[in-house]
Amino acid sequence: MLDHRKLPRRVGIYCRLSYAPDGSLEKVERQETDCRQLGARLDWPISEQHVYVDNSRSAWQRNRKRPAWDRMLEAVEAGYEGDGIDGLLIYHGDRLIRQPYDLETLIGLAEHKGFRVASPSGTRDLDSPDDRYILRIEAAGACREVDALVRRVRRANQMLAEKGLRRGGGRYRPFGFGVETGRVVVRQGRRPGQGERLVPEVDWNQVRPDEAKLIVQAAERLLAGQRTYAIARWLSTRCSTTAGNPWSRPALRAMLLSPRIAGLTEYEGTLYRAVWDPIISHEMWEGVRAVYRHNAEAQPHRGRERRSLLSGVAECGRGCGGRFRAASGGRRKASRLYACEGCGLARNMQYVDAWVEGHVVQLLQDPRLAEELARGAGRPGVAAEIGALEARKAELERVIEQAADDPDVDPVLAMRTLAGYKRRLDGLRQELAGSSRLRMVGRLMGVSREEWEAEPVDVRSAVVAALFRVVIMPVGRRGPGFDPSSVLVERRLGEGG
Ligand SMILES: [Zn+2]
Questions:
Q1: Can you tell me the distance from the alpha carbon of 363 to that of 496, in angstroms, rounded to the nearest whole number?
Q2: Cα of 430 from ligand 1 centre, angstroms
Q3: Interval 344-352 mean pLDDT
Q4: DSSP 174
Q5: pLDDT of 470 higher than 90
Q6: Is residue 428 within 8 Å of 436, Cβ to Cβ?
Q7: Is there a contact between 466 and 441 (Cβ–Cβ < 8 Å)?
Q8: Interior/surface letters 6-23, b for 16+ CB within 10 angstroms, e for the rest
C-alpha cells in the first residue's frame, strides 16, 4: 500500500479532540506528536503553517463549527502550487477518517492532485481507487458502529419502559419513593480519590407512606382549585424536597406531573404501567394534568408574575382584535394605564379596575350565583373517564404501531378512531378545567370588598375572567374622571346577571 512513486512536497497535520470507542478522550497534543513521528518516519516534510487543530469537544460532529478542518480543506484545494498542501498526516481514533461525509469532501477536493494521506494505520493515495475503496469501507464501518450503539441504547430504554422499569437518571430520590432495604452496598465516591464507602441500599420502587400521603393531599388541593403557590407553601411546612429545598411552584409541578406518582412510566410519549405501586390513581393524575394545562392556557403571563388585574383579560371594543396590557404613561409618570396592544387605545388603570371589581364583589354576594355554581359543579367521574380514554388511546396507538405492515388492520379506520378519542379527550379536559374554575369562584362566594382586595392579583384576575367579559370601548368623555359607559362588563357564567 505504501506508494514509493513520489513523496508529497508540503504536508499538513490535522488533529481534533475526539472520543475513542472506549469512551476516553484522545488528547490533541498526543495526536500531534504521533503525526510528527509518523511524518519523520515517512520522510514527509511537515509545514508548520499547515498544522490544524480543532480542540472543541464536539469537533467530530459535522454540524458543529470546525474552523481548523475548514482551513485545512482550503489548503487541500489550493494544492502545492497554490501554497497549500499535497499531503496530510491525520490521526483520530482507530480510523483515518471516521465520517463518510468528511471523507467524501476530502476526496472531492483532492481529486487528480496525487494527494496523499497518512495515519498510523497506513498511508493512502486519494487518487488510487483501491485506497479510496478501503477508506470508504473504514468510514462506513465506523459510522455503523455509532448507529448500532445508538440503537442499542434506545432499545434498552424502551425495554425498560415496557417492563415498567425506568433507569433512575436523577440525582435525587423521587419524592414519595425510596425505602431502605436494611442492607448496605459499596459505592464508589463521586470524585477521584474519594474511594469506596458503604451506603444503605435503597429500593427506589418502594412507596414511602409518609410522603405518599402528602402527594395525595397536594393533588386533592390542586383539583379543589387551590392555587399552586399556596399548595407549595403548605407542603413546605410539612417537608422539604428530596434535594433539601423548600417546595417551589416548579418543584411542585414537576412532582405532580411525573407519571411515576400514578404508577406509570413514560417512554417517547407512551405511558406504560410501572412495577411500583401508584400513589394517586391514573384518573386523578389525568385531572392534575388537565388543571395544569388549563392554568397554562388561562395565564398568558406564563412565567412572569401578574401585576395588573385586566392585562390580557380586557378586550378592545374598537374592533382591532387586540387585548389590553399594562403600560405606564400619561403626563404623570405615576399614572398607570391599560393600552390596547392592537390600536393603542389607553385607559386609566385605577378607574377601570375599581369599576370592574365593584361588579365582581357585588356578584359574589348574589345567591343566584351560588346556585349557578352548584348546578355547573361538573359531573362526577370526568377525571376517571379521561383516564380510561387515555388508556384506550395508548393501547390503540400501540396496535397501530405494531401492525404497520399488517394487512388486517385498516390504517385509515384506526387513525380515524384515534382522532375521535383525541376530540373526546379535549372536550373532557375542558369540562374538568371548567369545573375547577367554578370551584375557584365558589371559594370566594360572599367575600367583602376588603377580603376580595386581600386576594392575590392572579386569583382576582382569574375570577374576573371566569365571571365577566370586559370590553374597553373607544367612547366616553375626554378629560379627567371616569365614564362608566367606556367599559362594558358582561356576565359570562350561565344566564344570570
Ligand atoms: Zn384596540
A1: 10
A2: 29
A3: 88
A4: P
A5: yes
A6: no
A7: yes
A8: eebebbbbbbbbbeeeee
Q: Which residues are in the CB-under-5-Å shell of ion ligand 1?
A: 316, 318, 320, 322, 340, 342-343, 345
Cβ burial 389-406 (10 Å sphere, 16+ → b, else e) = bbbebbeeeeebeeeeee
Q: Residue 23: is its pLDDT beyond 50? A: no
Q: 239 or 101: which carries more pLDDT confidence?
A: 239
Examine the pLDDT at 25 and tell me if it is beyond 70: no
Give the model's pLDDT for residue 355. 92
C-alpha cell at 183: 442492607
Q: Which three cell numbers stand for residue 109?
A: 477536493
**Rounded to the nearest whole angstrom, what is the distance from the C-alpha of residue 453 to the centroid of ligand 1?**
28
For residue 335, report the distance from its CA to the centre of ligand 1, in Å.
Answer: 20
CA 69 to ligand 1 centroid distance, Å: 55
Average pLDDT of span 277-294: 84
Please report the DSSP string for 184-231 in residue order.
EEEEE-SSTT--EEEEEEEEEEEE-HHHHHHHHHHHHHHHTT--HHHH
Centre of ligand 1 from the C-alpha of residue 488, in Å: 14
For the segment 169-189, the average pLDDT, to the nearest whole number, is 76
Report field, pTM of the whole predicted structure over 0.85: no
Q: In this structure, what C-alpha cell is assigned to residue 287? A: 385531572
Q: In what order do the strands lie in the sheet with 11-16?
A: 46-54, 11-16, 87-90, 116-119, 122-125
What confidence tens digit (pLDDT) does each residue in 120-147 have?
A: 777 888 888 888 888 888 777 777 766 6
Residue 9's Cβ-side half-sphere holds a number of Cα atoms within 13 Å equal to 8
Cα→Cα distances 138→92, 109, 185, Å: 13, 19, 44
- What distance separates the 2 farthest-apart alpha carbons in the chain? 102
Which residues in 208-320 belong to E strands, given as ranges?
A: 264-267, 270-273, 315-316
